[in-house]
From TrEMBL:
Name the record gives this protein: Putative HTH-type transcriptional regulator YxaF
Origin organism lineage: Bacteria, Bacillati, Actinomycetota, Actinomycetes, Mycobacteriales
HTH tetR-type domain segment(s): 12-52
Source domain of life: Bacteria
Protein source organism: Mycolicibacterium chubuense
GO molecular function, one term: DNA binding
Gene this chain is encoded by: yxaF_2
Domain Transcriptional regulator LmrA/YxaF-like C-terminal residues, every copy: 75-180
Length: 197
């Protein structure tokens, strides 16, 4: 059984991925999570900024765990695209990446004390994902430097495809990028590691 605090963090991440950071208020998180009124500042004395930071941390951990659990880098890639493909369909193309939402919306120059910690957490989340992808690629026999480059490219292409799919309300960009990445990464693998979908 999860605690009210944990439910609030998960709810914040889910709401941010669909509504964006600016449109996700603490009242929305309380309603979505079913947490008792008044619990927000008990669990998050740093207010909305702390809640956003912890939602980003949750998203970072969730995705890193999934990437780490994959049997191969191609399996990780397939699972990543399959998961978001389903999320887009189930959410009527509202479910994006909460880390991207926070990264692009948190830069309020008038409130650096609120925006800087959140942007730093988003940068750390992307770094964790890049490293998890690179580790998986290196484990599958891809040259270490090439794995680093491909990890950056993979993450950038995935996030861009997700934005395009949401904007067009069409899975085609996601499917095309998935196929191209799979081909590109597959070409870098030793022959014994290459598998078909």
């Amino acid at each position: 059984m999860t605690s009210p605090r944990e439910r609030m963090v998960v709810s914040a991440a889910l709401l941010i991925r669909e509504r964006g950071a600016h449109s996700t208020a603490i009242a929305d998180v309380l309603a979505h999570s079913g947490a008792p009124r008044g619990s927000a500042y008990h669990y998050f004395p740093g207010g909305r900024t702390q809640l956003l930071c912890e939602a980003v941390d949750y998203a970072a951990e969730y995705m890193t765990t999934k990437l780490d659990a994959s049997a191969s880098c191609l399996d990780a890639l397939d699972e990543l695209f399959r998961g978001y493909r389903q999320q887009l369909q189930h959410s009527d193309f509202r479910a994006g990446c909460p880390v991207v939402a926070v990264a692009v919306e948190a830069g309020d120059p008038d409130k650096p004390e609120q925006s800087e910690p959140v942007i730093a957490r988003a940068a750390a989340a992307f770094s964790r994902w890049r490293e998890a992808i690179a580790v998986r690629m290196r484990a599958d026999g891809i040259d270490p430097q090439r794995a680093e480059d491909l990890a950056v490219f993979t993450l950038s292409a995935f996030e861009g495809a997700l934005v395009l799919a949401r904007a067009a309300r069409d899975l085609d960009p996601l499917d095309r990028v998935h196929a191209q990445l799979r081909s590109l990464i597959g070409d870098q693998l030793p022959r014994r590691r290459r598998t078909s979908r």
